Amino acid sequence: MIDLRAVTKVYPDGHVALREVSLHIERGTTVALLGPSGCGKTTTLKLINRLVSPTSGEVWVDGRDVRRSDAHRSAVVALRRSIGYVVQEAGLFPHLTAQQNVEIVPRLLDWPEARRSDRAKELFSLLGLDLALHGPRYPAELSGGQRQRVGLARAIAADPPIVLMDEPFGALDPLTRRRLQLEFKAINARLRKTVVLVTHDVEEAFLLADRVAVLADGVLAQVGTPEEIRRAPVSEFVASFLGLLGDL
Fold this sequence. Notes:
The protein is an alpha/beta fold. It has helices at residues 41-48, 73-81, 98-108, 113-126, 131-134, 144-156, 174-191, 202-208, 226-231, 236-242, and strands at residues 2-10, 16-25, 30-34, 56-61, 64-65, 83-87, 162-166, 194-199, 211-216, 219-224. The protein has a six-stranded mixed beta sheet, with helices on both faces. A hairpin with a 2-residue loop joins strand 4 and strand 5 (64-65). The protein starts with a strand and ends in a 6-residue tail after the last helix.
C-alpha cells in the first residue's frame, strides 16, 4: 500500500531529516511512527501525501510513485484528496461550521448535497456527535474532544483508503485522550483504513498500532509489532526510549 524506498530528505538549510529510510506499510494496518521530537516522524508523514518531496529515494502509494505527480498539479491535488489527514487540535477551518468542515472534501469532489448531508449524519453518529446540535457550531464553540472528533470525521468523509494522523490526541487532557484513542481503535477495527500515526507517546503507539516504526535522528531504528519491540529492543536507544533499558 505504502512504500518508502531508501528515502533521504535534506532541507535547504542543510538539516538532514531522514537518512535512507525504507518502510513498507501494508493495506489495512495501523503503523505508528514513534520517536522523540525532531527524529523525522512528521517529515515521513508528509512525504506520503507530497507535502514534502524526498531529496533521494522513492515514495510509492497504492502502486504509484508519488513523484510522478510533480509535473501535474491536478495529480497532486487528487493524491491529497484521496488521503485523510488529521492533525493536533483538529486543524479545522474556523470560518466553517462543524458540518461544513466535514463536508469540505466531498464538496470539492462534487458530491450532491443530499449525499454530503447523509455522509455527515453518518459520521457524526459514528463519532458520538449530534448533527443537529454540533453540526451548526463553529470550531471555537466546540470542546477539544469534539473538535478532534470533527477533525477525524472530516478526514474520513470521502472514504479515503489512507489516513495520516499527526499527534492527533496530543493537545487533549488525559481522560479525553484515552477515550478518543479507544474510540478510534474501535472505529478503525470496522473501517480497516491504512493509518499512519505520528506520536512520541509509547503507550499510545503500542495501544493503537499493528506495527511500530521507531525513528532516531532520521534513521529507522527498529520496526516490529508492539510485542516484538517490547520483547526484543534492538538497541540501547530503543530500549531507553521505551523505558526498557533494564531488559537489554
